[in-house]
């Protein structure tokens, strides 16, 4: 059997096809192998943005820090892209900018509406907001709009979506619990596969309906709570129409034209407080550019 070195498989099937073509050509050297067309895609994950110095931490940064981040992203020549652009690219349509980046905000906080939305607008940028349905439902029904802990209301989600600044992702209706028995969207101990998939279908499907009612569009992006993955969740996510999913593994993604699978379980870098903009972004950009150059 022909043993193919692992590094040759990194580019996936199209590179393998190119290799086979190469081997099939007499002499080989005249062959101009078609490289799979792909882009390196760093993704940043934010949570809260608050003007409260005593709350800053791993999941809370200040509006000033966010502004500096966005300015730096622009200065370094990166262009935030939408899920729709990425989905078109992997389907073989449309182009992506030379240095794409994905900007995401998890959990659907009101602080995304109050701080992140105007900041992205200011720079003409776009992002993805991953919403936990039960919280947005709750804060849409009660009279408590404290930005320190409230979540965005349906009306705020609609405004952000209609502006074109934010695409809305599904972050489960009520499965955003880190500890057992379930831990995010994982299968519980002793739960049958059928029961597990039914529970997911109900929860995530409920959020799909609520978000569709709020914005007029059914989400196509799913963010795994805490990045907890489960192989048996995939079939349900496919069934519910998700063509892009995001985890929390800190790595730069490679997105390949003609390979929709390359939008599965995208890695994202969590942006904590207490690190300067440059020391956070420089290693990520170096990684994205190093591998892009090595293609
Ligand atoms: Zn989350």
From TrEMBL:
SUPFAM superfamilies with a match to the protein in the record: Glycoside hydrolase/deacetylase
Biological process, per Gene Ontology: carbohydrate metabolic process
Alphabetical keyword list: Signal
Keyword check for Signal: yes
Domain named NodB homology: residues: 99-295
GO terms, molecular function: hydrolase activity, acting on carbon-nitrogen (but not peptide) bonds
Top-level division of the source organism's lineage: Bacteria
Keyword Protein biosynthesis applies: no
Subcellular locations according to the entry: Secreted
Chief localization: secreted
GO cellular component: extracellular region
Identification of the protein by name: Peptidoglycan/xylan/chitin deacetylase (PgdA/CDA1 family)
Species per Swiss-Prot/TrEMBL record: Harryflintia acetispora
Lineage of origin: Bacteria, Bacillati, Bacillota, Clostridia, Eubacteriales
């Amino acid at each position: 059997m022909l043993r193919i070195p692992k590094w040759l498989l990194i580019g996936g099937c199209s590179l393998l096809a190119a290799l086979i073509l190469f081997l099939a050509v007499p002499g080989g050297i005249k062959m101009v192998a078609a490289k799979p067309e792909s882009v390196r895609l760093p993704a940043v994950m934010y949570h809260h943005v608050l003007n409260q110095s005593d709350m800053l931490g791993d999941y809370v940064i200040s509006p000033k820090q966010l502004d500096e981040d966005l300015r730096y992203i622009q200065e370094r020549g990166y262009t935030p892209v939408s899920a729709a652009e990425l989905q078109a690219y992997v389907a073989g349509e449309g182009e992506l900018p030379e240095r794409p980046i994905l900007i995401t905000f998890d959990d659907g906080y009101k602080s995304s509406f109050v701080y992140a939305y105007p900041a992205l607008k200011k720079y003409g940028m776009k992002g993805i907001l991953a919403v936990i349905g039960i919280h947005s439902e709750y804060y849409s029904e009660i009279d408590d709009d404290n930005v320190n802990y409230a979540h965005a209301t349906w009306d705020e989600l609609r405004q952000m979506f209609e502006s074109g600044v934010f695409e809305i992702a599904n972050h489960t209706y009520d499965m955003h619990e880190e500890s057992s028995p379930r831990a995010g969207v994982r299968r519980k101990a002793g739960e049958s596969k059928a029961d597990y998939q039914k529970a997911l279908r109900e929860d995530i499907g409920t959020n799909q309906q609520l978000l569709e009612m709020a914005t007029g569009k059914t989400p196509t992006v799913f963010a795994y709570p805490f990045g907890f993955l489960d192989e048996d969740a995939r079939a349900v996510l496919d069934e519910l129409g998700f063509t892009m999913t995001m985890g929390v593994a800190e790595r730069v993604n490679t997105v390949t034209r003609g390979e929709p699978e390359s939008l599965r379980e995208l890695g994202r870098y969590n942006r904590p407080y207490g690190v300067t903009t440059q020391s956070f972004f420089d290693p990520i950009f170096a990684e994205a550019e190093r591998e892009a150059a090595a293609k």
